C-alpha cells in the first residue's frame, strides 16, 4: 500500500490569557514558507493525535481533514472517544486514506449553519465508489482570534471559518487570508510570529500552539454549528432498514426535460417525506447542468421508512443518475 501524507488576543474588555508553555504536542509540521499557498508545500507524513495508544485503541483509526486542534479533530473525539485520530492536509487525501483501508472511518464536515455546504465533501461523496454515510454529528463552533499582543491587521483561517466571522473581521478592518485549516493557521502564526497576523481557530488550538486568545466567540451567529458525517467503506443502508429518527442522503441528476426537478421532488412530497436539505452543484464538462443533493427525514410514524423507500425507488426510476450515500441515525 502506498503511504499517504497526513496531514490567546486583542480581547475587548477582558482578561488577557497567556500562551501555553508546553508545546510538546505540536508535532504536525509543514516546512516554513509562504502561508497562503499550501498546495506548494511538500506533503506531510500521516500524523496521529495521540502519541501512545492502547492495543484496543489501535483497532480504530479515524481520519479527518486538518491538523491536531482543528474542529474536525474535536469532532472525532466526540464521536469516537479513545480512537486514534489521523489528520490529512486535504479532503481528497482523507477520502483516499479511507478507500485504501489506512483508516476505518472518516469524520467530515458537510454543512455549516452560517456558511452553508462544504462543497468539496459533497463532490467527493458522489465521485468515489464503495463508501457510505453511517452517522451524523452536529457540533457547536466557537471561533477565537488567536495571536500575539498588538494590533491585528490580517487573520488566517480556513475559508469556511473566515466566512463565519465575516462581520467581525469587516467591522475591525481585519483582512481575511485563506489557509488550508484552522489549526494549521494557528500553528503558522505561532511559528512565524509575524506582527499584525492572527489566526481564527478554537481555544483548544491556542493552548496547543501556545498563542494568546485575543477575542472569543467572534463568529457572526451565536448559534453557529457544523454538521459532520461519519463515512465508512461499504454499501449504504436503504430507507427500508431505517429506524425512527433516521435520515437519508442522496444525490441525483434529473432527466433533461421540463418539470423533471418538480417530478423528482414530488416523489417525496406525495408520500409526506420531509426534505431537510436541497442544493445543487455544477456538473463538470456539462455547462449549466446541475447535480442535486438532497437529505430526507424518516419521522416516527410506523410507515415512514416504507414511504421513504418508495419515494427513493420512484426517484431511481425517474432520474438520469442517482447515488444513495446512506440512511443513518440523525444527530
Give an overview of the whole structure.
The strands form 3 sheets. Strands 1, 2, 3, 4, 5, 6 and 12 form a 7-stranded mixed beta sheet that branches. A 5-stranded mixed beta sheet has the order 9-8-10-7-11. A 4-stranded antiparallel beta sheet has the order 14-15-13-16, with helices on both faces. It has 3 domains: 46-141 and 225-233, 3-Layer(aba) Sandwich (D-Maltodextrin-Binding Protein, domain 2); 144-215, Periplasmic binding protein-like II (D-Maltodextrin-Binding Protein, domain 2); 239-329, Alpha-Beta Plaits, CATH 3.30.70. The chain is elongated and about 60 Å long. It is α+β, with helices and mostly antiparallel strands and 331 residues long. It is built from 9 helices and 16 strands. The two termini are 35 Å apart.
